[in-house]
Design goal:
about 0% strand, mainly alpha, globular
Length: about 160
């Protein structure tokens, strides 16, 4: 199982969030998919605002948050991450980033693990190629922050994950 997905499952266990056992596929209702999609759209919106502002740390936070929520959706299904290729090439325009993220988030409306896996893959790819950051380190920082229980009361510092 993907190590980040294991950590998300552990996070769910810590906070009593229901999820099937690993390998046991759980039923996900249409309303759960709708709520998950609303959360992904909110995360994408924050990421797009960070792109417009040119704030690399907030862009990284948005990408990690999107990936975390994609893993959470996979965990609530009881599935594992599906290996998918992340297809994005820097073309000199931030609109290509917005397009690829929008497409991946929209595909998640299917509720299928392959689409959540695709969102995770593109977020990891963009963190490395667009932001120039260590995605794994940023995820570890987010995970520690979430487990601390401080939530939004303390701003998360992802600057150590930036390669600048």
């Amino acid at each position: 199982m993907n190590k980040h997905l294991q950590q998300v499952r552990a996070f769910h266990d810590s906070f009593g969030i229901a999820q099937p056992e690993e390998g046991d596929s759980g039923h996900v209702s249409d309303m759960d998919i709708v709520l998950r999609q609303a959360l992904l759209l909110d995360c994408a919106s924050e990421t797009f605002k960070a792109i417009a502002a040119g704030d690399l740390e907030k862009i990284l936070a948005g990408l990690v948050d999107l990936a975390f929520n994609a893993w959470a959706a996979i965990a609530t299904r009881g599935d594992d991450v599906v290996a998918v290729a992340a297809n994005w090439r820097q073309d000199g325009s931030v609109l290509s980033v917005v397009r690829v993220l929008s497409d991946k988030v929209n595909q998640c409306a299917s509720g299928e693990t392959v689409h959540y896996s695709g969102l995770y893959a593109i977020c990891a790819h963009l963190a490395q190629r667009f932001v120039n950051a260590d995605f794994d380190q940023a995820f570890q920082i987010l995970q520690r922050h979430l487990l601390s229980g401080r939530g939004d009361s303390v701003r998360i510092d992802l600057s150590p994950a930036l390669f600048e």
